[in-house]
User: Fold these one by one.
Assistant:
Number 1:
Amino acid sequence: SFAEVPHAQPIAVFQLTADFRVDPHPSKVNLGVGAFRTEDGLPWVLPVVAKTEAQLARELEESTLDHEYLPVIGHPEFTRLATQLSLGEASPGLQSGRAAGVQVIGGTGALRIGAEFLRRWWNPELGGKCPVYFSEPTWGNHLSTFRDAGFTDLRKYRYWDEACRRLALTELLEDLESAPEKSVVLLHACAHNPTGTDPTGPQWLQILDVVKRRNLFPFFDSAYQGFASGKLDEDAAAIRLFESHGLELLCAQSFSKNFGLYNERVGNLVIVARDSAALACIKSQIVLLVRAMWSNPPSHGARIVATVLGDPVLRKEWIGCVRTMAERVKLMRQQLYEKLRQLGTPGTWEHIVKQIGMFSYTGLNRAQVDFLIREKHVYLMASGRINMCALNSHNLNYVAESIHDAVTT
Ligand code: PMP
């Protein structure tokens, strides 16, 4: 029987939302969610996505589209256009046929399939014992996907300077420098979750230098392309830099945030291999992994993304939507910062406006977070991470005043 099965720990971010839902307080605010919210606090179906879905529905009705299985590695136009969005049109890997994408189940599926592949084929003599480095802090699911793929030596590289609320570059470089050769290193392509702090261009060059010298394997996570700077190319600069130096790499690309297609699970695992023959072998192995895991990917989200990226008019409209989301986040940063200054809240708050992407790492400590949840009904992650677009003109003053009280009580 299953009498021995212990109850697992709830997943923090989902537990937070469940607690928020049952809280009857009229001023409650949920800053924990990992999705875009409009000024009215609602989810946003991008107009260009809704329009494309209507078109796809017509095509299904007219039988010019169907529900046949996709190839195991996915919708060919989707993977081609998605990979191009990540690596850029001038990508040497794409031009020489040694880069390609595999359609997977969201960014999470890309991380998991990538990890499954690396455990079997990167450093095969070590297998699951190959060290994997994650930024400290990082997105919680990074460790889980690699652990469940069989990696046992999960390590941290220092990333965050708590005192100065900025990137701990020296420590980061030190930790990668002392990593055993051929370790895997997970890098956030942009809009680092949860700190909202990315390396600058010159800092990326220093990271690239260590990765190359130590022969580390770079695995990028790109879940927020367009959210950091509002510009798609700029947000992919780190991946392109590594590619331009001839490195082999993987990149877990998610369309959950920048297309607002969260529950459609649209992801692409970008592969840059040494040459086209190696790429063909890698893809053939990934086919086997996918076949045994979910067999074939779902088509709906991939069709939407492929249609939009492949049509210049729709693509332009989509770029406008991404900019709208990025700008709303920036506006909320500015307003929260100004309000805290106006209140004279002790401490420095410039990091709120300096950080980028959907999240801010407020620097609020555990006691202050507990106070906000318990006394103010303002829900946020224990790490102090808040989703900037969960703020709006209706709740911003209340949140700022609550933070002020948390800091001064
Ligand atoms: N990486 C990071 C850093 C994320 O924040 C997320 C989404 N929260 C993902 C990957 C995975 O996204 P998806 O929902 O597409 O699996």
Number 2:
Amino acid sequence: MSEYETILAERKGRVGVVTLNRPKALNALNSQLMREVVAAVEAFDADAEIGAIVVTGSEKAFAAGADIKEMQSKTFAEVYSEDFFSEWDRLSAVRSPIVAAVSGYALGGGCELAMMCDFIIASDTAKFGQPEIKLGVIPGIGGSQRLTRAVGKAKAMDLCLTGRNMDAEEAERAGLVARIVPAADLLDVALDAATTIASMSLPIARMAKEAVNRSFETTLAEGVKFERRVFHSTFATADQKEGMAAFVEKRTPKFVNG
Ligand code: CAA
């Protein structure tokens, strides 16, 4: 029996797949689901056999947001004291690359969860939005910050202030989404991308992720310096020697993750 009730966690080769599984609530993110997603992703991250992770939902909903029914009666003192939603921050500390495969609704916390992943592959049915304002709250899992960095101030303000959704085309044009694929192909394409990532050197893939993420935290000059030092450090790995030797010898590299 699975140790999880609100998600499915399975391995597909070197890829860990986490599927949100509360279909009756359109995968609304309640506390149990939050704990289970974080635990499953962290377990895959700690597993040396796993090189990348896919987070996905159902065809109708990646996730329709934080669970409104669970939140409804909470008081300020409660949400403040328990630092409600802060557990999600642990996903940002995960070092393995994470691909979000998004079909249907990715609203509120659903959009925020997708944005905590490293990139989003969307089906042509995907709908993104931060509709919290319609409930008398604002985004609480980083939406106002990550959406603004992804799509710029104009569209982030539009979405956060009007609560409207944007479709996959608009999201791709705006830079939120890396690729759009037909709904029927979504999981295959996401798995393919994750499998490609997992076939690279794991430490080097993590360095690439770390370097891109640093761009959100620092100035350009500091970020370029950070990148340069990490680039230099790749030369301390066996995988740099193997990758370049394989190119010169016109063969496929055999990375040893070291
Ligand atoms: N929380 C709790 N339950 C939810 C939910 C949510 N976010 N979204 C949907 N559900 C439940 C519905 O209550 C319904 O349950 P019942 O059958 O028991 O009534 C079931 O899922 C199916 O939903 P609908 O009948 O509403 O389905 P629909 O196809 O008519 O509409 C929808 C789909 C447009 C996504 C609509 O469900 C909706 O608007 N959901 C809420 C979206 C939202 O406001 N999200 C933001 C939440 S706040 C947040 O996320 C804060 C944050 O920053 C983290």
